[in-house]
Amino acid sequence: MRSIFIISALAVSLLMAGCIQTSPGNGPAHKIQATEPWKPDGTIGAKEYSSWKYLSSVPGKNFTIYWRNDAHSLHMALRGQTDGWISVGFEPTDWMKDADMIVGYVTGDNATVEDQYCTGNYGPHFRDEDLGGTDDILEHGGKDEGGFTVVEFERKMNTTDKFDKAFVPGQNVSIIWAMADSKSLAVQHNVAAGKGILDLDQT
């Protein structure tokens, strides 16, 4: 079984007020009408997503999340100022525990995006498949460009996998996020981390 040890640093960062991007993370999202088709190519079109939020606007640690959804599917992009891995965790129950996590990085023309689940307050993460669940990333892609990493992915709003959170339109979803300067998932986050709230689109 392969475990991913991005261990206690995220929890420590959440304890440190200077690392939590409270204002942008909990503020309102930017909203538009998404009119462009979704493509998992690592390029975020001006109208590809209906919502986006700056979770960190600290110079050198910028992190933005984009999303669009209907009743059946969630499309999302993560854009972080790093050439390492970036991640988002949905609805942890206590610190990192029980977070439904997506972790991704880009190497050359290839994007790796993993469907993971966190079993403890401070880690570790495991791939859903290693826990007896399923990999529910339907499509994914990404790109490293200009000092930023972008990963895009699609999943069902309700995958029926017990290691994934089930979403409904209009739901407020609590998240944690992190990024590192390494593509190795064995390296803990060392760039930035924090938390926030996403308001899913009504349909």
- Molecular shape: globular
Number of strands: 13
Specify the number of helices: 2
Query: How many strands, which pairing sense, and closed or not: the largest β-sheet?
Result: 7 strands, antiparallel
Kindly, what is the distance between the CA atoms of the first and last residues, rounded to a whole number of angstroms?
A: 39 Å
Helix percentage range? under 10%
Q: What is the correct CATH architecture?
A: Sandwich
Output the strand order for the largest sheet. 1-9-8-7-6-12-13
Radius of gyration: 15 Å
CATH class: Mainly Beta
Summed up, the domain count is: 1
CATH topology: Immunoglobulin-like
Task: Tell me, rounded to a whole number, the average pLDDT.
Answer: 88
Structural class based on helices, strands and sheet pairing: mainly beta
Uncertain regions spanning at least 5 consecutive residues: 1-23
Please provide the ordered H/E string of secondary-structure elements: EHHEEEEEEEEEEEE
